[in-house]
Amino acid sequence: MVNDRELYDFSKPLTIKFGIYLANASILKNPGETKTSGLRFEDFFDNRDFSDMKIIVQGTSFHAHKIILSNASSVFAAMFRHWMTETQQGSVHIEDMTSEAAKEMLRFIYTGKIEFTETCKEELLAAAKKYGIWRLKFKCASYLCKTIKIDNAVKYLELADLYRIEQLKKLAIKFVVDNGKKMLDEPDFNSLVALSADVVTDLLRTLIPAVK
Description:
CATH superfamily of the largest domain: Potassium Channel Kv1.1, Chain A
Order of helices and strands: HEEHHHEHHHHHHH
Radius of gyration: 26 Å
Pfam families: BTB
InterPro entries: BTB/POZ_dom, SKP1/BTB/POZ_sf
Protein name: BTB domain-containing protein
Structural class: mainly alpha
């Protein structure tokens, strides 16, 4: 009778091959190409597949996943870790944000992309600060730096001061100085005096050499 030791040479390494079968292939971008496709966070954006919670804003519900939100936000991670009452119920209600901004915040968490609108830029900066999503702050700052205009330069300067975005502050100050005459008639121009002392000082330091 042949024993197991005679069937296999134990002096050689043992290699075990196995495969993983996904029952719900619809969550893949290309279900027919499972060998090259991989599961990505963007496949789960507002997707009920494997969702274990909801974000509720202004009566609108978004399907979400605790592990993905926790990976993006230390605040969400702490919320789920300490098992707050609302997370036990499988939902988080956000009262200080519009549903439009909440959707874009979640879109960024899952895909790294944002569809910016005029109304949600400031809300997204506030959300980035509140939830500790620093990559979102950088994304918003990058967008603002590229879109400074006559009618928003003062507002952007206020945002740069409020959220401590140094690069945006420098660009906005330079824009205000370079376009001072054109901006005199802008409704926000007079609000420059209400900015913090640091911003006003930086503005004057840039303005005085330009006048000479």
